[in-house]
Amino acid sequence: MVKSESIIEKAVELPHRIDDLLAGDRYRVSDVEKRNGCCDAILKISTNELEKKLEEILCIVGDEKKEKTLKYQLKDWITKIGYTCENRTYWEYMRRVLQEIVCHNIRKAARIQKEDANENDVRKQFEQIDLSEILNVQNEVSRNFEKGFIWVLSTCALLIPDYNFKLIK
């Protein structure tokens, strides 16, 4: 299952938050290449040796006291997202999140198309999706004053399995 929305939001923002933190008034790492390298190295950490790895990476700050503060701040951010406790990198974690979003949208599309969608095979569900039929169902349901609603479906997420279904497995 996809974790809470706030954790996902924090995960999506993490690369930018790290860069902004390093570039900001406190740490003043002005070299963009150094910041990018540091950020990339942080996002590749996948082990529980988080503190040690962060210490090695954050030497670019050049101030031991600031490095220590930054280490604990980044450790807190990363720990709250929780991907390193699963021995994953940030990129592996985000790929998994995107895969889950795609699968949820496939299941939702199948459910909209056929209310009794009992098929458990996501690939079969995907292959049976007819977007024009889903649009017709959405239009019909939205006209009904008693049920007047429309399901939120991210059809752009369906581009990924359409391009290469193996990307979501």
Summarize this structure as a short list of keywords or feature phrases.
8 helices, mainly alpha, elongated, single chain, 169 residues
H and E string: HHHHHHHH
How large, in whole angstroms, is the Cα Rg? 21 Å
Summed up, the helix count is: 8
Distance between the termini: 14 Å
Q: Tell me the β content.
A: under 5%
* Overall mean confidence score, pLDDT: 90
Query: What's the count of strands?
Result: 0
What summary fits the major beta sheet? Answer: none
State the low-pLDDT regions, or none.
none
**Could you state the oligomeric state of the chains shown?**
single chain
As a percent range, the share of helical residues equals 55-70%
Q: How would the global form be characterised? A: elongated
Determine the structural class based on helices, strands and strand pairing: mainly alpha
In short:
With 169 residues, the protein is mainly α. 62% of the residues lie in helices and 0% in strands.
Write the layout of secondary structure elements.
Blueprint: H1 5-23, H2 32-43, H3 50-57, H4 64-81, H5 90-113, H6 122-127, H7 131-143, H8 159-163
Helix pairs in contact: 1-2, 1-4, 3-4
Structure description:
This protein has 169 residues and is mainly alpha-helical. The protein has helices at 5-23, 32-43, 50-57, 64-81, 90-113, 122-127, 131-143, 159-163. Helix 1 runs antiparallel to helix 2, helix 1 packs antiparallel against helix 4 (64-81) and helix 3 packs across helix 4. The longest helix has 24 residues, at 90-113. It is elongated, with a radius of gyration of 21 Å.
